[in-house]
Amino acid sequence: MTEFLSAVAEQSFLQMSLLAGLLASLGCGVMGTFVVVKRITFLAGGIAHSVLAGMGAAVYFGFDPLLGALMAAIVSALLIGWIRLNWKTQEDTLIGAIWAMGMAIGLLFISQTPGYASSLTSYLFGNILLVPEQDVWFMAILDLLLLLVVGLFYRQFLAVIFDEEFARLRGVPVSFFYLLLLCLIAVTVVLLIHVVGLILVIALLTLPAAIAGHYVHSLGGMMLIATVLGSSFTVGGLALSYSPNLPAGPTIILLAGSAYVLSAIFSHYRLRRRARQSLSMP
Amino acid sequence: MNKVIELEKVSFSYGLVPVLQAIDFSVKEGEFLGIVGPNAGGKSTLLKLILGLLKPQTGNITVLGKKPTQQRTQIGYVPQYPGFARDFPITVKQTVLLGRLGASRMLGRYTEADHLAVQQALGELEAQDLAERPISALSGGQLQRILLARALVSEPKILILDEPTANIDMRLETDIFTHLRELNKRLTILVVSHDVAFISDYVSRVACLNRTLVCHQTDAIDGKLIQDLYGEPVRRVAHAH
To answer: Is the predicted pLDDT of residue A116 greater than 90, yes or no?
Structure first.
């Protein structure tokens, strides 16, 4: 651990990695809470995986993979949202199809780009030690955008994820805000790609918020705790993996996953104990 | 008196299944109207048409002189089943505040007026002490009062309730209807119930619905009518909960 700390002090690439991790945690704390509470993990997974199409196209045509990822994420969010709103009977099959087709398109593009096969692993599983400074700036801008939109329309988002029918009756344009929410989730997915890669995104997006949900009963509280937890997992995973030279992404996910399992068991028994106590009271 | 809700020859079907046929029906300002009828008689569908959540295949609906979708924010609605998960992480106060959307400003936070309206609505229903509770900790009767507060907080002109007492006990049922009678002094109220005998003590008029409008009148409902409606004799005292 001391080795990691002194490395952070000396190496600017590690400082960039930490900064990227913290920026990503902010996004996943805020948007992950919406995903967990609205129970749309599967939708978010579909958006995350189909992002590979955009990244593959980007390396093939020679532009920034992160920009390609952002465009693919938005397109896939709108497509999946449209299916969810208008084609409910076959929703899960269609989203599964988009999930796999997005990855297939990405793999085909990458296979046709000479010398890029090695970058495939870092798209899929992340490579937080190699975040270019300009990408950190890009992530900061995405975070800012995310916070601004959520801050301005917090009540509308809350209304839509809480009770769609009632929101519609209060004159809230439900479809618009639902699609906007999915687009913001798409932005978050892009934020997380460097940290854990698009395959593991879904875990870092949902686990911190789900743990927070075990202990607090407000959306704002969940967002705050999830952000703090996400930061701890990212920094902790980075520190743990540094000396033994393990890949950081999987270490971060295992840390988050173990914390979630422990928390789920703990809160289950806490709830049972409370139920017993309330029964034994006169 | 002005007609606040008007339906002309309205028919509606889900797919091939006809639910409502040729409904002519109107509600006047200040009325307390009960809609009764058997299950699957189209009562909830009628409400959803008035709220603009469904569109009739034929016929015409006007609410306060305009199309239903344009007047949604003028209506307070209490659904039969809440459209949210009971374990959603939200307090009573936040839930009722959401009823202010559409009356409040579009961007940013709630205003002072929004908070005041919530306090007033909770006070009117004697539920101030529930304000900071998470909704997961409410009993059925408390939840019903909160849903009513959420509908009232936007200061609507019309209040529409779908089986407001289906999931609560008899004493609370009387409570809710006493509240409604008080509210009727300033609001037009439309309430759906399967319980003919009970609501006839409170409402000013009853409409009976079983795919078509079986009756639509001010007179007291007699046994013959109930038999027409349900297809079999119903004991009026039957009020088991």
So the answer is: no
- When divided into structural domains, chain A yields a total of 1
How do the domains of chain B map onto residue ranges?
Answer: 3-85+156-230
Name the residue among B2, B7, B98 with its Cα closest to residue B54: B7
Asked if the structure places residue A203 within a domain, the reply is yes
Nearest CB to B73; choose among A164, A171, A217: A171
By residue range, what is the domain housing residue A105? 2-277
- At A256, is the pLDDT very low, low, confident or very high (cuts 50, 70, 90)? very high
Q: Any idea which residue has 């920094």 for tokens?
A: A235
**Spatial distance between the Cα atoms of B229 and B50, rounded to a whole number of angstroms:** 22
CATH of the domain at A180: 1.10.3470.10
B101 to chain A, closest Cα gap in Å: 6
Give Dmax over CA atoms of chain A in angstroms: 75
Q: E strands within chain B?
A: 3-14, 17-28, 32-36, 58-63, 75-78, 158-162, 188-193, 205-210, 212-217
Of residues B53, B88, B91, nearest to A165 (C-beta): B53
- CA-based nearest residue to A197, from A132, A131, A138, A122: A122
A101-110, A116-125, A189-198: segment of lowest average pLDDT: A116-125
Residue B214 — φ and ψ, nearest 5°?
-80, -40
Of all residues in chain B, the one with the smallest CA distance to A159 is B98
Mutate to test the interface with A, among B54, B88, B104 (most CBs of A within 10 A): B88
- Quick check: B98 and A170 CB within 8 A? yes
Residue B75 or residue B234, greater confidence: B75
The predicted-structure confidence for B183-225, as pLDDT tens digits, reads as follows 999 999 999 987 777 777 788 888 888 888 876 665 555 555 6
Are B191 and B44 contacting, i.e. CB atoms less than 8 angstroms apart?
Answer: no
Instruction: Give the best residue of A150, A162, A168, A225 to mutate against chain B (max B CB count within 10 A).
Output: A162
Contacts of A162 in chain B (CB under 8 A): 84, 88, 90, 95, 98
Nearest residue to A225 via CA among A204, A208, A245:
A208
Q: CA-to-CA distance for B40 and B46, rounded, in angstroms?
A: 11
Let me know the angle formed at the C-alpha of B194 by B188 and B196, rounded to the nearest 5 degrees: 75
List pLDDT tens digits, range B80-97. Answer: 888 898 889 999 999 999
Contact (CB<8Å) B89/A169:
no
**C-alpha–C-alpha distance, residues A36 and A147, integer Å:** 18
B3-85+156-230, which class in CATH? alpha beta
Residues in chain B whose beta carbon is closer than 8 A to a beta carbon of chain A?
51, 53, 72-73, 75, 77, 79, 82-84, 88-91, 94-95, 97-99, 101-102, 104, 107-110, 134, 136, 150, 154
Collect all residues from A whose CB is shorter than 8 A from any CB in B: 37, 151-153, 155-156, 158-159, 162-172, 213, 216-219, 221-222
Asked if the structure places residue A158 within a domain, the reply is: yes
